[in-house]
Amino acid sequence: MDYFDSSIELEAFLKSKNKKHLIKKLEIPNVEILYKRQAVANGLGDAIRLGKEFVGNEPFAVLLPDDIVIPDPVPALKELIEVHKETQGSVIGLKQVKQDCLKDYGVIQGWPKERFIEIQDIVEKPETNPPSDLAVIGRYIFTPKLFTYLELTNEGVEGELQLTDAIKSLLANESVFGKIISGDRYDIGKLKEYVELVNRLIKTD
Q1: Which of 29-33, 48-52, 77-81, 198-202 has the least mean pLDDT?
Q2: Domains (ranges, CATH) in the chain?
Q3: pTM of this prediction?
């Protein structure tokens, strides 16, 4: 919330340092932003559930900020939106991941179609025998029906309310699709990938 708020202290500091020209860069975007704080870190499913009052009965997007996707050439979310328009179903962003890293992600099993994958099952952080090498990344389009299953979901892996468990319930009642994104994805929760992204941006700049 503080990130998209004005900072009187910072503006005063810039003025005192004769850097008034930088204040222009602090202007707040002219958009309405609604907030809900997750009081306890109780899992991604719990965090999404808190947004129900903002969504109403509309499809909605979820973007996780620790997953950075460099578009190539289309932004990942736009790729998912196109699949949603075609299918009217929930759509999950996917990326192929090395076998030894699959234990860190949700992993899907599904049937490839021409432009997307029809998901049959999803497993949260499989320690052994992952159903494929397609890991879920932090880009989603969901139908509002997801909230029904988030409300019914019990604590899962690591004692948290897992989004994966709600998706499994959703799968039993409506089609869910996956889209392998075309851009390069970086999980900046992993030091190695964070450094790779920084080096890439430095070279680009």
Answers
A1: 29-33
A2: 1-33 (no CATH), 39-204 (3.90.550.10)
A3: 0.85
